[in-house]
Amino acid sequence: MEITDIRVHVLEAPDAEDVADGSQHATVIEVETDAGITGIGSVAGAPPVVAKAIVEAPLASSITTGLREVLLGRDPHDVEVLWNEMYERTYGYGRKGAAVATLSGIDIALWDIIAKAAEQPLHAMLGGKHRDSVRAYASTLFPEDPDDVDHMRREAERALDDGFTAIKYGWGGITEDREKDRALVETARETLGPDVDLMIDIGMGWQNDLKRGVKQINELDDAYDLFWVEEPVYADNIDGYARISRACSPRIVGGEREYTLYGFRDFIDRGRVDGVQPDVAIGGGITHVEKIATLAAERGIPIYPHGYSTDIVIAANLHLIAANQNAPLLEYCIEDSPLRWEVVNEEFSVEDGYVTIPDEPGLGVSLNRSALDEYATEPWTDWS
Ligand SMILES: [Mg+2]
């Protein structure tokens, strides 16, 4: 089997807001083969036009080239070889960031092809499934206005109505004022009652005041019982993670902007985190998230795959979660975004707080062509 084309769909939502919810744009990847099998992938964390450029760029040097150059004519079954080549041939401008995110999207599509060719679900290609369904947590944002405690109540009620038994709030107005932070978390806990797991995502907000972070995490945990505190500081601040982790009672997790097994080795071993959150469409694709999951298992910590973009990522996460025993939770965004839900035809619904692992061949998703047409945007330059 040979790869014959790579298509990058640049999608943009109408009326996008400048908030940290990833809903403004989406990059969908299609890898075509001469066997008539097309693989589907998705890139997150990089602007779609940048991902497109990283695929299309012509050869500049052996370590500074576009990914199309690496992939055309190659067999998708050589996915691990191709991962290494994509990593090495973008090394001049890659290693972390947009180049790794883009190769991650392609890697997802290659695995989709391999599983479709075998007429097996992806988890069967990854060693089988440990579970038929997984507990999902509702993922949403703190209000932009830190006085808006009603937002906390509304989101908690929505999660409870939908059957979730865990909810995470992130980014937005948290960390602006200690008393206001406390009121926000208090409202969530009061609405949820004592039995629902509550997580907070600091969106790196304590990067410039670690001591405040430590004090506040422990106060909030004592009063409102936090299941985890996420991304308190930059991923690069590994020693900061270690200091916070040592000094705080709840789980400290992060990694949605960390990359590859190489990055996660230090993040786990030096950062002393209690759980890792690689994003399959950012941090290394199926190939490296599998390795990261194995490393985490060896170190005795869970993997909580990050997923805040398209349902293609949700599907990939479901297969990764199925295939790894130390993956007990699915991130499930409850915010409205057409790009999140509409790019595939399938729906991953939550029933009694759980989502079923797909058993159809490949990722188990198909592209919704009318949505791709509707949200397609012309790149800002001529790529032909
Ligand atoms: Mg996060």
Verbal overview:
- The chain is α/β, with parallel strands linked by helices and 384 residues long.
- It folds into 2 domains: 3-121 and 369-375, 2-Layer Sandwich (Enolase-like, domain 1); 124-356, Enolase-like C-terminal domain (TIM Barrel), CATH 3.20.20.120.
- It contains 14 helices and 11 strands.
- It has helices at 48-56, 67-71, 79-89, 98-117, 122-125, 149-161, 178-192, 210-224, 238-247, 260-269, 285-299, 311-323, 338-341, 369-375; strands at residues 3-12, 25-33, 38-43, 133-141, 166-170, 197-201, 228-230, 251-254, 275-276, 329-333, 354-356.
- Strands 4, 5, 6, 7, 8, 9, 10 and 11 form an 8-stranded mixed sheet that branches. It has a 3-stranded antiparallel sheet with strand order 1-2-3.
- The chain is globular, with a radius of gyration of 20 Å.
- Bound molecules: magnesium ion.
- The site of magnesium ion has 5 residues, from loops.
- Residues 170, 201, 230-231, 256 line the site of magnesium ion.
Q: Give the oligomeric state of the chains in this entry, treating copies of one chain as homo and distinct chains as hetero.
A: single chain
Relevant CATH superfamily of the largest domain: Enolase-like C-terminal domain
Count of helical stretches = 14
Per CATH, the class of the largest domain reads Alpha Beta
Low-confidence stretches: none
Looking at the structure, the CATH topology of the largest domain is TIM Barrel
Q: Roughly what fraction of the amino acids lie in strands?
A: 15-25%
Gyration radius, rounded: 20 Å
**Arithmetic mean of pLDDT:** 95
Q: What sequence of helices (H) and strands (E) makes up the elements?
A: EEEHHHHHEHEHEHEHEHEHHEHEH
